[in-house]
Amino acid sequence: MNIDPFLIWLEATPLSQWVVGSPSMFAFPGILALHAIGMGLAAGLSAALDLRILGVAPGVPLAEFRRFQPILWFGFWVNAVSGVLLLIGYPTKALTNPVFYLKLLLIAAGMVLLVRIGRQAFDQRPGAAAAAGPPARLRRLAIISLVCWTGAITAGRLLAYTYHRLTALR
Amino acid sequence: MVHTFQVWIVTAIGHDSFVSGVMRSAWGWPIAESLHFIGLCLLIGSIGTFDLRLLGVAKRVPIASVHRFIPWGLAGFAINITTGALFVLTEPDQYIYNPSFHFKLLFLAIAGVNAGIFYLTSYRRVFAAGAALEAPRRAKVIAAISLGAWIAVIICGRMLTFYRPANCQGRQASLLLTCDPK
Fold first, then answer.
1. Which chain B residues contact residue A51 at CB under 8 A?
2. CB–CB of A75/A41 below 8 Å?
3. Residue-wise pLDDT tens digits, A39-78
4. What is the nearest CA distance from B151 to chain A, expressed in angstroms?
5. pTM: predicted TM-score of the whole model, two decimal places
6. ipTM, 2 dp
7. Cβ–Cβ below 8 Å for B66 and A60
8. pLDDT tens digits for B25-77?
9. What is the 3-state secondary structure (H, E, C) of A48-117?
10. Which pLDDT does position A81 carry in this prediction?
11. B8 to chain A, closest Cα gap in Å
């Protein structure tokens, strides 16, 4: 399937041209900066929960991590929006690179795992079960979650080095 | 002046070392950058969690318990100082003359001094046995400055590419060199 007509159309839209071509620091540079901050909040706070499950900071009740979730999700939505803007700016660069799809897959897996981990971890009441530590299956999910975030971040960084075509227009 | 010092650093680091050889290999720079971003997440996830707790998130949890995350934040910081040094050692002029790098160092210093002030002035009160769950006002201000400084560090880091120093072409800087004199 040839998606070039779509890519050419998208790259010609005013929004795409603004993201890529505007000299404003709020355009491409600002969006990139937001994308890094959102990553720190989403992947960072997710990793903190994973680390807690794996035994770090045992004095923090697992259920209390629920309180950090709104900030984590704020970071996720900042990145969903800034990510879409970056994609509109350079659609060819991302969509013709398999690494981009790997990154999306790893983020999707990371978020699904986060929801599953939350469902199991936030319902735990402090008591006998909590004293014994998180169950093995929760620990497994935490390890997989850490692997997914590490992979998603690496794939994201590699996008700058592995693309074949930058734009379809030029 | 400061710019003499900058030129001296860039010359002293030089360009053809073992480090720049590894960094210029096909995978050197991309791997170091990936590690730099992973370190960023570790740092924000850990230090950010502690700062947010001081600011009042998850107020029922003893502050000392949340402080157990700090070593992981320091591990992220160590990763980033190491990989950051690799970048500067490989392309010194791209950083030493870059205004965004100057601001990044400034905000790193603010974050560091701010953390030092926390341990000097608030540590005992916040960590005393039976300490109140609500952090004192001073600790909250420190936590807010910490979050702000780290976010500023990220922004300056991302801006480095867009403030790459151009050739000076005879211009002289007043305090800091923000162009490449070579």
1. 45-46, 69, 72
2. yes
3. 999 999 999 999 999 999 999 999 999 999 999 999 999 9
4. 7
5. 0.94
6. 0.93
7. yes
8. 999 999 999 999 999 999 999 999 999 999 999 999 999 999 999 999 999 99
9. HHHHHHCCCCCCCCHHHHHHHHHHHHHHHHHHHHHHHHHHHHCHHHHHCCHHHHHHHHHHHHHHHHHHHH
10. 98
11. 30
Distance, in angstroms, between B1 CA and closest chain A CA?
30
What is the SS3 assignment for chain B? CHHHHHHHHHHHHCCCCHHHHHHHCCCHHHHHHHHHHHHHHHHHHHHHHHHHHHHCCCCCCCHHHHHHHHHHHHHHHHHHHHHHHHHHHHCHHHHHCCHHHHHHHHHHHHHHHHHHHHHHHCHHHHHCCCCCCCCCHHHHHHHHHHHHHHHHHHHHHHHHHHHCCCECCCCCCCCCCCCECC
Phi-psi region of B171 (alpha: psi -120 to 50; beta: other; left: phi over 0): beta
Cβ of A38 under 8 Å from any chain B Cβ?
A: no
Gap between the Cα atoms of A61 and A121, Å rounded: 9
Residue tagged 């050692």 (tokens): B89
Contacts of B60 in chain A (CB under 8 A): 61, 64
Single out the residue of A75, A36, A114 nearest to residue B37, CA to CA.
Answer: A36
Subunit contact A156:B159, Cβ cutoff 8 A? no
Residue A47 DSSP class: H
* A160 shares contact with chain B (CB less than 8 Å): yes
For the record, the structure tokens of B37 come out as 């971003």
Does B61 reach chain A within 8 Å, measured CB to CB?
yes
Selected for mutation to probe chain A from B27, B41, B147, B161 (highest A CB count within 10 Å) is B41
Residue matched to tokens 């509109």: A88
Provide, as residue numbers in chain A, all residues whose Cβ is less than 8 Å from the Cβ of B61. 59-61, 64
Give the one of A68, A154, A156 whose C-beta lies nearest to B57's C-beta: A68
